[in-house]
Amino acid sequence: MAYRQPSRIFAGLSAAAILQLEYSWRLHDDDTVFIASSTGGNSRCHANIRRIFMRHMPVVRVAHSPCPGGLVISVAPEHALSAATPDPGTEIVRITSPARTLVDCGLRYPFAQAMPMFNSALRKGLVTLDEVMETCDGLQANHGPVLRLLHYANPLCENGGESWCYATILDLGFAVPQLQHVFVDPDAPWKRYRVDFVWHTQDGRIIVLEYDGTGKYVDPKMTGRRGVQSVVHDEREREDALRRAKVTTIIRTTFDEVAQRSPLMHKLLDADVPMTGMHPFYERRTDIRGREY
């Protein structure tokens, strides 16, 4: 579409896809392509094309350059890339700025679905919290959902699955966990184990939650081409080391449990994970590097 109409500016989920932000591909189930428009309202101009109206259109150009194993993505203001001659094989697409893209997606999709986009954009250095806030200030719309995403966004989530699980935990009303905490095995101080989520409770308990994707056991890139038995053995050794490091409870959850929500909620309740409403202390905020302040 960009090749046929170079002047077209992609927006919303389409811009997020071009930026290769993390999110569930189920959001593309209706095959809608989003484009920015300075005239008319938010409407469909074709069965699969939806316009997003914006009076002031912040535009950047995204260059996709082929490299061994994938693509290199470069984002620059429109004038910067338009003046340069692209390398052979490089594709350039015009989209709304990363900040405006996040705002549009944050207003359109549920909290748990939008969180991976925000976290990955921050982790990749495509945007700052202030830039997103500035974009919100320029809109005449209720941007409360975006403010909530900004409040909890944390680039320490390593992938879209973790971000989705993290946001679901918050949606269910549980306390904000600490992310990517490292434990040291007291019997072997040279061994360190990083966990996905951890709560240090006021009564001295340490609760760990691990998000396990099926790829952890079957994807050669994640298993190092080891067999399932070997991976399971390493997991048991890891759990033993965490318990030696004073972890009192270890919870494991899966994609299906997070999607259904109820199984995850019951596991967290059974482990007595603090609820936000009962423990305001746990409402913590982080900066762009994931540090608390």
Account of the protein in words:
Helices cover 36% and strands 22% of the residues. With 293 residues, it is an alpha+beta fold. It folds into two domains: 12-153, no CATH class; 166-282, no CATH class. Helix 1 crosses helix 3 (98-108). 32% of the residues are buried. It comes from Bifidobacterium aerophilum. This is CTP synthase.
Outline the secondary-structure elements:
Layout: H1 12-18, E1 33-37, E2 44-46, E3 49-53, E4 59-67, E5 70-77, H2 78-82, E6 91-96, H3 98-108, H4 111-123, H5 129-137, H6 144-152, H7 160-171, E7 178-184, E8 192-200, E9 206-212, H8 215-218, H9 220-223, H10 228-244, E10 249-254, H11 255-260, H12 262-270
Protein name: CTP synthase
Give me the side-by-side strand order of the main sheet: 7-8-9-10
Alpha-beta content class = alpha+beta
What is the typical, i.e. mean, pLDDT? 84
Distance between the termini: 44 Å
| H-E string | HEEEEEHEHHHHHEEEHHHEHH
Specify the helix fraction band: 25-40%
Rg computed from alpha carbons, rounded to a whole number of angstroms: 21 Å
Separate helix tally: 12
- Provide the low-confidence segments as ranges: 215-220
Q: Can you count the beta strands?
A: 10
